[in-house]
Design brief:
- This protein is mainly alpha-helical.
- The protein folds into 2 domains: 75 residues, no CATH class; 111 residues.
- Helix 3 packs antiparallel against helix 4 and helix 5 packs parallel to helix 8.
- Belongs to the PPR family. P subfamily.
- This is Pentacotripeptide-repeat region of PRORP domain-containing protein.
- Keywords: Repeat.
- It holds the Pfam family PPR.
- InterPro entries: PPR-containing_protein, PPR_rpt, TPR-like_helical_dom_sf.
Length: 188
């Protein structure tokens, strides 16, 4: 590609990196990701989806390490980086790998605690990513726990927060509950 003066992108590297992820060849995955960074390509949602395949292979710790390393190499704030990773995985329906990376609710909340300790204040989008993941995996009860914690900690939900929760409740065929929650929100 370089000889023909085509500029590679993360999208062109992602399929190349998929096979080593499927085979659990972490060293090759890291080398390919290093090439992405060296070529000044920005990893995209597809990149995180490819890395999430490692979770499906039982290599959660390795995937988590790779994602942390990517965040450091990009010099992006952990706040934005984790929001991007979580949102990307959840929007593509890869909630299981996303939760494996976050090691479920307690550990996901631990990430928020660590963010706060390091002066990164989570925002509604960070919480929304968690809530969306739980709703998509039909664990609306856990999404409501995250929502309650969000309010208890003084974070302001936004319209997207409410939309995600309403859709999650309705998706679980709890239409009466969804209507009741919607009415309550409308009154507020």
């Amino acid at each position: 590609m370089m000889r023909r003066q085509f500029k590679p992108t993360a999208a062109s590297y992602n399929p190349i990196n998929a096979l080593p992820c499927i085979e659990g060849k972490v060293v090759l995955v890291v080398k390919c990701l290093d090439q992405i960074i060296c070529r000044r390509c920005t990893p995209n949602e597809g990149t995180y989806n490819v890395i999430a395949v490692l979770c499906e292979q039982g290599m959660v710790q390795e995937a988590f390490s790779i994602i942390q390393s990517l965040g450091n190499k990009q010099n992006s704030s952990m706040h934005d980086f984790y929001r991007s990773v979580l949102t990307g995985l959840c929007r593509k329906g890869n909630t299981y790998p996303a939760f494996q990376l976050l090691r479920m609710l307690d550990e996901a909340m631990e990430i928020f605690r660590l963010m706060e300790e390091n002066n990164y204040r989570p925002d509604a989008n960070n919480f929304n990513a968690h809530i969306l993941g739980f709703c998509k995996s039909q664990r609306t009860n856990l999404s409501l726990e995250v929502f309650e914690m969000m309010i208890e900690k003084g974070y302001m939900p936004n319209e997207t927060t409410y939309t995600i929760i309403m859709e999650g409740i309705a998706h679980e065929n709890e239409n009466q509950l969804a209507a009741k929650v919607l009415k309550e929100l409308h009154l507020r």
